[in-house]
Amino acid sequence: MKLPHTPEYSPADVKKAWEYVDTTDIIDAVFKYNKKYLHWEELKRRDLPVDPLYVWILMKTLRTKDMKYITFDDLQLKYNLLDDFLEKLHFLDKSAAGSISSGLDSLPHDRDQFIINSLMEEAIASSQIEGAAVTRTIAKKMLREKRKPATTDERMILNNYITMKKITQIKDENLTPELILQIHKTITKDTLEDLKDEGRFRDNNDIRVFDLRGNVLHTPPDFALIGELIEKLCVFANNDGGQFIHPVIKGIILHFLIGYIHPFNDGNGRCARSIFYWYMLRKDYWLFEYMAVSRVIKDTKDQYKLAYQYTESDGNDLTYFIRYNLAAVKTAVDNIQRYIEKKQRESKQALTILQKSEGLSLRQAEIIKSLIKNPGKPITIKEIVETYRVAYGTARNDLFHLEELGYLAKQKSGKEYIFIFRGLKK
Fold first, then answer.
1. Which of 86, 174, 383, 396 is deepest in the core (most CB within 10 A)?
2. Which residues form the Fido domain (predicted)?
């Protein structure tokens, strides 16, 4: 696969392109593909009524008209606010304060559980994007049971999970170089070839971003500039004055800038996604605490990389990167809505069980409900503690009570008990 590029063109090419301004089918193509914000690599493969270069020139001319610019050090960033972006931003603003909130409020016993599950999903997927070879099932079991990681990949996932939980606690703090280093140290603990690289900016220019074929996708700025660039990034993140940038757009730009600066020898992607997550919570987008955006990114990893490449190859036009990330966020919100609908249906089933079973609390009914879906899966007291955020004694009493009622079979495993679902009473 060749690296994406955009074509060079001369004043004569521009003059030729303008000859088609009054040609209806060509102008229709210009507006159609600008609405989709196609990159040159996408446009040149379309069936066009004229040389793609001339369509491209006219598209670029129109894009310049409403372009918004951000100067970051010597880097000139730009983007267009497409109608599609405005629609997604409105949807997200409305969802964070409206229908989804009421939907989650209707499921109070699931709310904390969902937060934990989402943090797990985010941690696992963000690590898998960077190559962690651990399945979701094994990773979630490790986190729920608080098992010590057995491999570097498992350690990476645990680090991400710890970082995600920490960010929910520091969301009101200003971003500083020290905080970025702290986030990086937590994310990379005991996973790097050189442990000295934990929580330390790179001190070399050996870092390049490659594709699988060995092509250089990105050459980061000189390491001597990192301190200054990170200081400016923090000012950009903390300063709400001057040019207004929608918070979600600004969070995506921060994500991009960390990737562009590439301040660390390793862990840049995980750090970038964590800072995006921090910024969204800082700006009161509470919904992100329930969202596993990295899981969506993992499922579309090639498009994620291409969004970076399209942006850099087209004069740092962030529209491509924003387009991809807004779509990922929208998918994550849709996943939450589907979850709410599913949990509301399951809650009715749990209430039915509760009505037929004397002595069961709603949480105990929820435990049975989860076991109905995975009847062969053993469950432990520690898992109940982590899943439902209850005290150890409460979790123990729940499982022992269900065992007494005949729903569970209790077995000794080392120093602890495991519980097996026996089925519903007839």
1. 383
2. 175-327
Q: What is the mean pLDDT of residues 42-54?
A: 96
Q: What is the pTM of this model?
A: 0.80
Backbone conformation region of residue 195, classed left if phi is above 0, alpha if psi is from -120 to 50, else beta: alpha
What's the pLDDT tens digit per position in 176-204?
999 999 999 999 999 998 999 999 999 99
> Which tokens sit at 300?
């579309």
Q: Going by C-beta distance under 8 Å and a sequence separation of 6 or more, which residues neighbour residue 2?
A: none
Give the list of residues 6+ apart from residue 45 with CB closer than 8 angstroms, or none: none
pLDDT in tens, 203-228: 999 877 665 566 667 789 999 999 99
Q: What are 48's two structure tokens? A: 């066009």
DSSP 283: T
Domain covering 357-421 assigned CATH 1.10.10.10 in the classification: yes
**88 and 329 in contact (C-beta within 8 Å)?**
yes
CA angle (90, 96, 97) in 5-degree steps: 95
Number of helices followed by number of strands (H, E) in the chain:
19, 7
State which amino acid sits at residue 290: Y
- Look at the block and give the residue holding tokens 């009847």: 375
